[in-house]
Amino acid sequence: MTAEEIKKLETYLRKVFNSEAIELRRAPKIEEMVELHKADEFLGTIYKDTEDGDVSYQVNLAILDIDLDE
Q1: Sign of dihedral through CA atoms 55, 1, 42, 23?
Q2: Residue 13, beta-bridge partner list
Q3: pLDDT, tens only, 35-60
Q4: Long-range contacts of 63-68 (CB under 8 A, 24+ apart)
Q5: Residue 9 host element (H or E)
Q6: What is the rounded CA–CA span in Å between residue 47 and residue 45?
Q7: β-pairing verdict for 22-26 and 33-38
Q8: 15 by DSSP, 3-state: which?
Q9: Is residue 29 part of a domain?
Q10: What's the gap between Cα 28 and its chain centre?
Q11: What is the mean pLDDT of the chain?
Q12: Is residue 45 part of a domain?
């Protein structure tokens, strides 16, 4: 993903989650993926999908069972 795409996604997700602590970080080895963080907490990954000329972004959230009890 380009830096511009990452910035646009980050701005959008900050509105959706209503939090300025949302941050996207480039994945170390996968070019079409970024990591989704809230402050220092890892929330999941976002993949860019360019199928049939359309662009979409798939968000995968990691939810631990211990987090459900809080």
Answers
A1: negative
A2: none
A3: 999 998 999 999 999 988 899 999 99
A4: none
A5: helix 3-16
A6: 7
A7: antiparallel
A8: helix
A9: yes
A10: 14
A11: 92
A12: yes
Which tokens hold the place of 17?
Answer: 């989650």
Would you state the structure tokens that stand for residue 50, as one six-digit string? 């360019």
Domain count, the chain: 1
pLDDT band at 21 (very low <50, low <70, confident <90, very high): very high
pTM of the model: 0.85
What is the rounded CA–CA span in Å between residue 50 and residue 43? 23
In sequence order, what are the residues at sequence separation of 6 or more whose Cβ sits closer than 8 angstroms to the Cβ of residue 67?
none
Length of the chain counted residue by residue: 70
Domain that holds residue 60: 3-64
2: its two tokens: 């380009």
Q: What pLDDT does 28 receive?
A: 83
